[in-house]
Amino acid sequence: MAGALTLKTRTAFTGISFVTPTILIIALILIYPIAQSFVLSFGESSIDGFEPYRFVGLKHYSALMGDSRFWNSLGVTFAFTALSIPLELILGIGLALLMNETFKFKGIARLAVLFPWALPTALNTLIWRWMYNSDYGLFNALALQGGLVDRPINFLGDDVLAMGSMVVVAVWKTSSFMALIILAGLQSIPRDLFEAGRMDGMNRWQEFTQITLPLLKGPILVALIIRSMDALRTFELPFNLTDGGPAAATESLSLYAYKVIFDFLDFNFGAAIVVVQFLVIFAMSLIYVFTLRGKD
Amino acid sequence: MKNGRYCVAMLATVIAVCGPIKAFAQDLVMSIGSRGYGGMVERNIESFQAANPDITVEWNKVSDVPGDSRKLYVTGLTAKSPTPDVFAIDVIWAGEFAQRGWLYPLSGVIDDAQITAYNPSFLSAATVGDKVYAAPLYLDGTHLFYRKDLLEKYGLAVPMTWEELIAASKTVMEGEGNPQLYGFVSMWAKIEGLFMNWLSFTGGNGASFFDVNGNVAVNSAEAIAATQAMVDILHKHKIAPDSILTMRPDDARTLFQQGRAVFLMVQDFVHAPLSAADSPVAGKFDFTRNPYFEGHADAHSTALGGWLLAVNANSENKEAAAKLVAHFTSFDNQLAAAIDENRAPGRTDVYSAPQMVDASLIRDFGTNYAVGVVRPSAATGSLYPRVSEAMQIEITNALHREKTVEQALNDAAAAVKSILGQ
Amino acid sequence: MIKRPRYGLYTLVALSVVISFFPIVWLILTSFKNTAGIYAWPPQYWPNPFTLENYISIVTNSPELLRYILNSFIVGFGCTVITLLFGGLSAYALSRLHLRFAGVLMVGILAVSMFPPVSLLPSLFQNFLNLGLLNTYLGLILAHSGLFLPFSVWMLASYFATLPVEIEEAARMDGMGFFRIFLTIVLPLSWPGFVATGLIVFIFSWNEFPLALVLMTQNAMRTAPVGISLYPGEYAFPWETISTATVLAIIPVLIITAIFQKQIVGGLTAGAGK
User: Fold this and answer.
1) Which of A11, A103, A258 comes nearest C97 by C-beta?
2) Enclosing H/E stretch for B311
3) Rounded CA gap, B373 and B370, in Å?
4) Is B34 in contact with B64 (CB distance < 8 Å)?
5) Which residues from chain C sit within 8 angstroms of residue A183, using beta carbons?
6) CA A243 from centre of chain
7) B27-73 pLDDT, tens per residue?
8) Which of residues 184-203 of C touch A (CB under 8 A)?
9) Which of B93, B242, B246, B418 should one mutate to test binding to chain A, selecting the residue with the greatest count of A CBs within 10 A?
10) ipTM (interface predicted TM)
11) What is the pLDDT of residues C73-120, one digit of tens each?
12) Is A87 buried (19+), middle (13-18) or exposed (0-12) by CB count in 10 A?
């Protein structure tokens, strides 16, 4: 009896010591500023003490509810996420499977495919913005010279096309990220499972759905959560591609919060936006975890 | 014991000697864009350090893109960081930053004589109460650049009014018959530059942001007519490409440089790249002041922008920092900036200096700055960003034809009034 | 058995490579064009003349770019080490040691990473200012680690979960300490996961912009993306300089990705189930 208690305690002690460094760093970098954001969102004043802090309860939140620009940015963010995540996942899995095969020039092919996401987002977006340009961009040049269209396509100036263009850039960049995570997961699947399956006469599709997919569930879930969180917080992409335009058609929540904080210097309202955004993301990841884990 | 007392005495002597010396040596950190002021930054820092051997200046390069450096400044200033001691601010930030107590007042620290020499509209943008909080460093303004070869070909005079410009554009476009040649390009994306553009148009029709009584007048009859002209340029006369609504200054410049536009209205920074040796339009273009509308020959239509130098209110070396600011904005250094680096001075007295003959470009720009319009940042102070944003939104709505011009401007007026609490 | 030529496979691969790589190819081509070529209309596809003037110009006029790249390396490397080490230990503890608070902690760690870094800037800057961590490698490494530890913990936990428990249980029976188990059993078995996570974190850190912008303001301490952001003018966007600088800044990332992608896919899969 005494031995078992000691074991549990020792385990707990080890566990705590393993986790402590992480907690400390996160406390400094994330928890403290987040707590400040929460406090700011419930009051008036900025952290420079421009005015003394006044607690105003839910005033900013109710103002937020009536703010049409907020709802627009929420809708934009959801639309962007809903459009890009499924595409990224499918392409990511496809790319990972492809890269898992053996063929000539495998190394270079893998590198090329994994590379898009290694580019800094801001620069990557600027390249695409240049290519999308309707007067001297690459895409329109090709389309015009190829006779596909006789007037340039206004990729970034049309409400719907702008969102589509943004999704294309996101999918292009992040499919390789998904592919990387899933590829590592694929590599961890023991080969003998596949051999056993082949013995049983499984074809490739069955192999995929009955062996590969279930074992990939862990990495897929993580990839989905991480990517969804990123998509819901997207900032660099709309900022550099369209600056939220045309007319706020691509203004994400983070972009709106940024404008409120850094352009209007309204730290409190901006904090409220960020807190709401956090709650939305949190709810979303809970949904993911429960649906995907529950399927076990 | 004797050794101990000896050591203490030595130590005390060392401290006594070194202490005061250390108190005199001051380190200043100056944040200014890496490109915006050209080689003047290094030159001025060198000459300053030579004249003030006890002060060192470290040049902290920041991005020239206003949004990027603003992010940096806002973060540092809200945290009450003592550095940078001196930094360059966009003219529209001056009132805002001053009102938040982030800037150290320069009145009384810089000579009055020098202060009165500064450009008056920039100075008013940097004055809160009766104190001046920043010193103008250099200006820029929007101009009309045109293809003189095309105008000559069709026997057209340089347009002074918008009506003339529209007619000239149509003539050239029809004559050339090139679907990729446009009449007019400018920066009409939903950016600060759009607001400046709009002020050019409306100013050119005799309208102003506030009326004589200080009330918001963005929906005056003149403003509506001018804005309608903008909409017509795009949708009725069709002398501008659809993509003008996504153009930033450099996009418009690129199109003009590729030879695909007759008229270009942007800031004068474009003069250098357009006249570069490998530019397709080098030698084929010239510039004039922005057009006005018929019957308003005395109207102001040059939209002004520029940068000022300010001292951080939390700086630990405020006096030295103010000295540095005064040095950068001295007569001689501003003259050198005009002649050697093509930077339009923030002081009015420099323009009439005899040496300015060597800087004819700046001098010509300067003539047009005299008929300038500035954004209402001084009057709106820390509310300026919201005002600008409200204006940009409604002007965009009008240009996209989501609202009629009258509707858009009425909504703009209502929004601005509510922001200003009028 | 005759092997059918795998046209389908090769086509797909070729397509993927082209689509993935063309913007970068476009960027590289641009860096070899002169100004007239970059802004030419109709667009110039192949540089004519093919010139190195942009590269020469950057090396002579902006040698600090190399320093920025070095800084990015140091920060990225430091951040990767910390996130793999601490993240790995945490992931192991939370997924294998059956701690009571594991679930709460996992969710909590994930939750705090859901705030957009941009909104954390002002208060983070203030904290670092007061702690004297501004313009230090340690400061930015800690900041990046804070940003990416949650990702690392979750990633590694998910890889650990795929490992069979029997091996560890056997080791526990033999009386091995947890730390040794982590080092000698778990780490080697989940090597592809570690490499993938490490590579991703390195690249996250390399590309991170907002925090690097405000926490490293001194010229000598800047990271590469921030350094490159200094090239645009207030209105002008010099593609000559920017494309060249970007290509130079990407090369280290390219090399590292090349090295480590072999590690990921050459992982120890055979015998894992034994």
Assistant:
1) A11
2) strand B302-311
3) 9
4) yes
5) 196, 264-265
6) 18
7) 999 999 988 888 899 999 999 999 999 999 999 999 998 988 999 99
8) 190, 192-193, 195-196, 199-200, 203
9) B246
10) 0.85
11) 999 999 999 999 999 999 998 888 878 888 888 888 888 888 888 888
12) middle
Residues within 8 A of A (CB atoms), C 238-257 only: 239, 242, 246, 249-250, 253-254, 257
Amino acid sitting at position B172: V
pLDDT band at B331 (very low <50, low <70, confident <90, very high): very high
Q: Check if the beta carbon of residue C151 is closer than 8 Å to that of residue C193.
A: no
Q: Closest by alpha carbon to C252, among C128, C110, C53, C68?
A: C68
pLDDT tens-digit profile of A270-293?
A: 999 999 999 998 888 888 778 766
Q: Quick check: B87 and B31 in contact, CB under 8 A?
A: yes
Alpha-carbon span C186 to B310, nearest angstrom = 58
Q: List, in sequence order, the alpha helices (H) in B126-282.
A: 148-153, 162-176, 192-203, 221-235, 249-257, 271-274
Q: Chain-wide mean pLDDT for chain B?
A: 90
Q: Which residue of C has its CA nearest to A177?
A: C200
SS3 content of chain B, % helix, strand, coil (to 5): 50, 20, 30
DSSP B60: E
How many Cβ pairs closer than 8 A exist between chain A and C?
275
Asked if the bond preceding C49 is cis, omega within 30° of 0, the reply is yes
Cβ–Cβ under 8 Å, residues B133 and B313: no
CA A24 to chain centre: 25
For residue C23, give the DSSP letter: H
Are B63 and C230 in contact (CB < 8 Å)? yes
pTM (2 d.p.): 0.88
Cβ neighbourhood burial of A244 (10 Å; 0-12, 13-18, 19+): buried
Residue whose C-alpha is closest to residue C250's, from A50, A119, B168, B31 = A119
Residues 128-157 of C with CB under 8 A from A: 142-143, 145-147, 149-151, 153-155
Question: Under DSSP, is residue B138 helix (H, G, I), strand (E, B) or coil?
Answer: strand
Q: Say if CB C13 and CB A103 are below 8 A apart.
A: yes
